[in-house]
Design a protein that fits this description.
With 102 residues, the chain is mainly α. Helix content is 63%, strand content 9%. It contains four helices and three strands, in the order αααβββα.
Length: 102
C-alpha cells in the first residue's frame, strides 16, 4: 500500500510545478502587453508634460484677449480688461496650441 502512495504522490506535484512554470511567463507576457496598450505614447506624455509646465509658468488667463499671464491682478496686463482674469485650464491651453497647428 505504501508503494502505491509513493508512486502517485509525485504526480500531482509535477503537474503543479509544470503549471507554475507555464503560468509565470504567460502572466509576465500578459502584464507587459496590457502595460503597452494602456501606457500613453511618448508623444502624449511629452505634450502632457509641456502642458503642465506651461500652465505652471503662466497660470492665469484673460477671457477678453485670450492670453496667458504670469501674475494675477484685477486688470489684464495685455488688454486692460477689468475682472476678466481667471485660473488657466487645460482647455485654454489646447485652444492656444490649436491656433498654431492650423
Amino acid at each position: 500500500m505504501t508503494e502505491i502512495i509513493t508512486v502517485f504522490l509525485p504526480l500531482p506535484w509535477n503537474i503543479v510545478m509544470i503549471s507554475i512554470i507555464i503560468a509565470i511567463p504567460v502572466t509576465i507576457i500578459l502584464v507587459s502587453l496590457l502595460d503597452a496598450i494602456f501606457k500613453p505614447s511618448y508623444k502624449e506624455y511629452e505634450s502632457r508634460a509641456a502642458q503642465e509646465d506651461f500652465l505652471q509658468a503662466q497660470p492665469y488667463f484673460c477671457e477678453t484677449c485670450n492670453t496667458f499671464l504670469t501674475t494675477f491682478r484685477e486688470i489684464c496686463e495685455n488688454c486692460g480688461a477689468i475682472n476678466s482674469l481667471r485660473k488657466a485650464t487645460k482647455k485654454d491651453y489646447k485652444q492656444y496650441i490649436g491656433q498654431f497647428k492650423e
